[in-house]
Design goal:
Elements lengths: L6 E3 L2 E9 L3 E9 L5 E9 L1 H4 L2 H14 L10 E7 L2 E6 L4 E3 H10 L6 H19 L21 E4 L4 E3 L4 H6 L18 H4 L7 H16 L9 H10 L13 H10 L11 H15 L6 H10 L1 H15 L2 H22 L48 H22 L14 H4 L21 E9 L4 E4 L2 E6 L2 E7 L3 E7 L6 E6 L6 E6 L10 E7 L5 E4 L2 E5 L2 E5 L2 E8 L6 E7 L4 E6 L8 E2 L24 E9 L4 E4 L2 E5 L2 E7 L3 E7 L6 E6 L4 E7 L4
Parallel strand pairs: 10-16, 17-23, 24-28, 25-31
Antiparallel strand pairs: 1-2, 2-3, 3-4, 4-6, 5-6, 7-8, 8-9, 10-13, 11-12, 11-14, 14-15, 17-20, 18-19, 18-21, 21-22, 25-28, 26-27, 26-29, 29-30
Helix pairs in contact: 4-7, 4-10, 9-10
């Protein structure tokens, strides 16, 4: 890999190349002022294939006008959007540190987990920045509706001092409108989309809250929430998965599960109303469970884990300081041109300035050219207003000028000999002479050799592969992936990808001469028609509840219509054993199933003391009078097998029937089962027969 050499770029000096993405190159840069002033900043240089897209640049400009207003400690400040030659760039605040992806990767390399309080602190700081941007208003108090749309680890920066900052506000919205999608732009981004974003629906600030929840999950567990072999599989998983407290990892505490499940709710209406609400929930857990936490611990951890990189950066800083003299000398002329261009395109106070000055407009040698034959006037010295000048009467000046002019005319007239004075000849009209002019044979001028046409190559890929490709209306013989060579550089090609059961995708790409251009397109599948399989469900007991894939769907007899695949059926009815069965349905199936339910085993009756001769034995439920003082209580639990203590006495295990219970009196029940929390309940029996069901919770 070639070593980057510092070089000037407009009014900036690029010191170090930090990263390269699918949309831009990021540089560490310097800018200089008077009296030795200098400032470090970051330059995001937009790649040529993105700069060539007018829609992208237009969208980027509109978004930059909004985000340039943002000024918050948790948001990287954007200074301006500009242009040097054909290169668009964004200048922004430089953060000396690492991004969240590097932090997670390093934790896996050294086999250490990021402490939970630091995870909570990082995401709470992210929520502060998000809430500020989401709530931003213009000068007329109208909301700007700013949404980041790309809250991912690469866009969260952690400085070596422990600061947490969000980068690339507004750029994600512009990137979604780019028509020349190349490999790498979507890489690593799909994993952090919200369900509505993955479905292509309109998004608001709550999509950023969902993405922040994914980041918190990954920090706590070290694993990604959504995974798949391809982007299509990941998108499908996001579109169909509903996250609850039960589906979250066991490594997460119950209190955090509750907060995280709300942030990751499938329906945006069920999430936190604002990023501030999410931040408050995290802060409560942070300072209630980790009272000794300090924000300085984050900076210490980053410095400790990235100590080798810090040493390298210190050496690079020493080397860069030696080139400051050369840097200033190279930027003196560039800085002067920048000031001139800004005066022509806008005021110096404009926060957003796109420099469109042409090279010929710059000030320098030969900038002002005189037309042929025009007399060049000498440069007059500036008039000094404060010096006294001798005043000459006006009439004296006029007389002197007249005398001088007359003398000059007389001397010139004397120089011309009388006999050589040219005779006046009649003026000939061109139309009269035109027929007498002999036309010379036309000879073709020798043609100058045309410049050599530069060539480039193009690599076409698709997800999934095997798609048919049409380039400018010409169908290609091969299917993706395809490599095309000897293409004319700078030419814009219109490419169409088509594959059975997938929607067509059209793209435009500009062939580059200095490198191979790669175009990777993810095809959207055509959704199958709804309700393609049918199943009629009957049972020997009419009216049994039907559950399909865990959700109550109706009562028998019941007809299920849905997508083909494996279906889990479950029937439930009081007095009968629950019945569960799995079936596979294919597209177009119309099946019928009859499920036979069995009687439930009669509940165990707790032993009761024998009645005394003068006592009347308890009667059956149907014989008990509504005016009697004795009733029955049936106790059950989910799961069953819990030990029952009724009115302080051990009575058996669930399910159980207590046959003789006094009415109009308070009674107590306590259930206990290993691995579950104990369950207690008090009640007053007012009826002849009562059923009490308890749902036990795991410890």
């Amino acid at each position: 890999m070639p070593v980057f050499e510092p070089k000037p770029f407009g009014k900036y000096f690029l010191v170090e190349k930090l990263a390269v993405g699918g949309m831009a190159e990021i540089y560490k840069a310097k800018t200089f002022g008077v009296d030795g002033f200098e400032k470090l900043l970051a330059i995001k240089k937009i790649l040529p294939h993105c700069s060539a897209d007018k829609e992208f640049i237009s969208m980027l400009t509109d978004e930059a006008k909004l985000v340039v207003r943002l000024s918050h400690t948790n948001i990287v400040q954007i200074y301006d959007l500009g242009k040097v030659g054909d290169d668009y760039y964004i200048s922004m605040e430089y953060i000396d540190g690492v991004n969240l992806r590097e932090l997670v990767t390093r934790s896996k390399e050294i086999k250490q987990t990021i402490p939970v309080p630091l995870c909570l602190y990082i995401i709470s700081e992210v929520c502060k920045g998000l809430d500020y941007a989401h709530s931003k208003r213009d000068e007329n108090s109208r909301p700007l509706h700013i949404v980041h749309r790309d809250i991912s680890p690469q866009n969260i920066l952690i400085s070596f001092e422990g600061e947490t900052k969000i980068v690339d506000f507004g750029i994600a919205k512009a990137a979604m409108n780019i028509s020349q999608t190349t490999a790498g732009i979507l890489k690593g981004k799909v994993t952090y989309m919200s369900p509505e974003q993955a479905l292509g629906k309109p998004v608001d600030h709550r999509t950023d809250i969902f993405s922040a929840g994914i980041l918190l999950y990954e920090l706590l567990t070290g694993n990604r929430l959504f995974t798949g072999e391809t982007h299509f599989h990941v998108l499908k998983q996001i579109q169909t998965t509903q996250i609850t407290e039960d589906t979250l990892s066991r490594e997460i505490s119950p209190e955090l599960k509750q907060v995280l499940a709300k942030a990751l709710a499938y329906n945006p209406k069920e999430r936190y109303e604002s990023a501030s609400d999410f931040q408050i929930a995290l802060t409560k857990i942070l300072y209630s469970q980790y009272s000794d936490f300090s924000a300085k611990k984050l900076g210490g951890l980053v410095q400790n884990w990235f100590a080798p990189e810090l040493k390298v950066r210190k050496r690079q800083t020493e080397i860069q300081s030696t080139i400051d003299t050369k840097t200033r000398a190279q930027l003196d002329h560039g800085r002067q041109e920048t000031l001139v261009r800004r005066e022509k395109t806008g005021s110096l106070s404009d926060p957003l300035l796109i420099d469109t000055t042409k090279p010929e407009d710059s000030v320098g040698p030969g900038a002002f050219k005189h037309p042929p034959g025009e007399v060049k006037l000498p440069k007059l010295p500036p008039v000094l207003p404060h010096k006294k000048r001798s005043r000459v009467p006006l009439y004296v000046l006029i007389v002197l000028l007249l005398i001088g002019g007359a003398f000059y005319a007389w001397t010139e007239w004397k120089k011309i000999p009388k006999e050589e004075t040219p005779k006046k000849e009649p003026v000939l009209v061109p139309e009269i002479l035109e027929p007498e002019i002999k036309k010379e044979p036309i000879t073709e001028e020798p043609k100058t050799p045309s410049p050599e046409i530069k060539k480039g190559s193009l690599l076409l890929k698709s997800i999934p592969s095997g798609a048919h490709v049409t380039i400018d209306g010409v169908v290609q013989e091969s299917k993706t992936p395809i490599t095309l060579k000897d293409l004319e550089a700078g030419k814009t090609l219109k490419i169409t990808f088509s594959l059975e059961n997938y929607n067509k995708s059209e793209r435009k790409v500009v062939v580059q001469s200095d490198r191979s251009t790669e175009l990777n397109v993810m095809l959207d599948p055509i959704p199958p028609p709804p309700e393609t399989a049918q199943l009629e469900i009957q049972s020997n007991v009419r009216g049994a509840k039907v559950f399909v894939n865990g959700k109550e769907a109706g009562k028998t007899p019941f007809t299920y219509k849905g997508e083909p695949g494996e279906v889990t059926l479950r029937l439930e009815k009081k007095g009968y054993k629950a019945l569960e069965k799995k079936m596979k349905l294919a597209q177009g199936d119309e099946k019928k199933i009859v499920m036979t339910m069995e009687y439930e085993t009669p509940p165990v009756v707790a032993p009761q003391p024998q009645p005394k001769p003068h006592m009347v034995p308890p009667r059956r439920e149907k014989d008990i009078s509504t005016h009697g003082s004795i009733g029955q209580v049936r106790i059950d639990s989910n799961p069953r097998g819990a030990a029952v203590v009724f009115d302080g006495a051990k009575s058996g295990i669930t399910p159980i029937l207590i046959p003789a219970v006094s009415k109009n009196k308070m009674h107590s029940i306590r259930l206990s089962l290993p691995g579950y929390r104990s369950w207690s309940h008090s009640f007053e029996l007012t009826k002849n027969y009562v059923e009490i069901n308890a749902n036990l919770q795991r410890e």
